[in-house]
Write a structure and sequence with these properties.
351 residues; 16 strands; alpha/beta; 8-stranded parallel β-barrel; 13 helices
Length: 351
């Protein structure tokens, strides 16, 4: 993936609630994913009296099975100390997994302090998710827009300098989806080029307020949160395609995240230019063992085409016919299906 960062598979557990506590890390030990990013950290803890929201949007139909999520900042962001303790546990429970840390991109963050507390981190991610959230009714929106971009750029530069000796990734939020194709995008990517061991993560969850609606005779109001899940795939796919040429020119690998639920979505993201994909909501939908099922499916595709590695598969993927790409043999992952389903499948196979 990067000069000194190699993954066993291109499937990666994203920074999320699945990587926020010790019990989650223990649960991942049986799966041993290729890579895992701990939940994003912040220098100081901010206690917020806010209710945790995880609402399935299926009643609204247009969002599919996506989730609307929101929570207090002390649950959404770890302190540096908690991150350091969690990293030590992760390296203990997941010796074969590449484990990294994530930090919020903000002028108040002390990247050097985080680095000193987490010397065993194998990579670091800069999360710019709050960097470009501009209030709609500011007095001078244009000036605020320019300042937000310049502030984000300063943080990218400062982050890359601090972690100069470590593989790094910058998470490009959807608030910066206007960048590709603009002169400013080259400016934004230059610190990653100068670093020489950096990648771009595209594009995480989507900040969105939903119109109030009725369900089960009750009115629901979903504001100030984010949408996670399959609804995001189309915009993630388009953004990956739009950043691909500039990133290829500069040898910056792209990691796609947001809406990666099924095999065909992962393949489409790779076709669009992604070198790896991050998983989060897919695990909510199908449980942790789904990770292995995706690995089995990917290996089967590689094998069917007579290739030896994902690197070869990714290189040749654009040359395959679509029918060849999406036609694969039946796969059975013994730890994915419920017991009664396994027994029915075995009976059918034997018959």
């Amino acid at each position: 993936l990067l000069p000194n960062l190699k993954l066993d598979t291109p499937l990666w557990i994203a920074s999320c609630h699945h990587t926020a506590k010790e019990s989650s890390l223990k649960a991942w030990a049986r799966i041993a994913p290729a890579a895992l990013t701990l939940k994003t950290s912040k220098r100081t803890e901010v206690v917020e009296e806010k209710q945790l929201v995880r609402y399935q949007l299926l009643p609204l139909q247009r969002y599919g099975r996506s989730l609307y999520c929101d929570g207090p900042k002390h649950l959404e962001l770890l302190t540096y100390k908690v991150t350091a303790d969690l990293l030590a546990k992760a390296r203990e429970y997941l010796p074969t997994t590449v484990v990294g840390i994530s930090v919020l991109g903000h002028k108040d963050e002390d990247y050097a302090e985080l680095k000193s507390q987490c010397p065993s981190a194998q990579f670091c991610e800069l999360n710019l998710k709050y960097a470009f959230r501009i209030p709609e009714h500011v007095a001078d929106y244009r000036a605020s827009f320019i300042e937000a971009f310049e502030s984000a750029l300063r943080e990218v530069k400062r982050f890359c300098v601090t972690f100069a000796d470590l593989p790094v990734f910058v998470k490009l939020p959807r608030g910066l989806d206007w960048l590709p194709g603009k002169t400013e995008f080259g400016t934004f990517l230059q610190p990653l080029v100068d670093h020489g061991n950096a990648g771009l993560i595209v594009a995480n969850s989507e900040k969105k307020d939903l119109a109030d609606f009725m369900e089960g005779g009750e009115e629901h109001s979903l504001k100030n949160g984010v949408i996670c899940g399959e609804y995001l795939f189309d915009s993630t796919y388009e953004l990956v395609k739009r950043v691909a040429s500039a990133c290829v020119e500069r040898s910056i690998p792209i990691v796609a995240t947001g809406g990666m639920i099924h095999e065909d979505q992962i393949l489409r993201a790779v076709l669009a230019g992604a070198a790896a994909v991050q998983l989060c909501t897919a695990i909510d939908y199908y449980r942790r063992s789904y990770y292995r099922s995706l690995c089995h499916a990917l290996r089967a595709r590689i094998f069917v085409h007579g290739l030896r590695s994902f690197a070869e598969f990714r290189e040749r993927l654009p040359k395959f016919d679509i029918a060849a790409v999406f036609s694969v043999p039946f796969l059975y992952a013994e730890d994915f299906w419920a017991r009664e389903v396994q027994e029915a499948m075995r009976r059918d196979i034997m018959k």
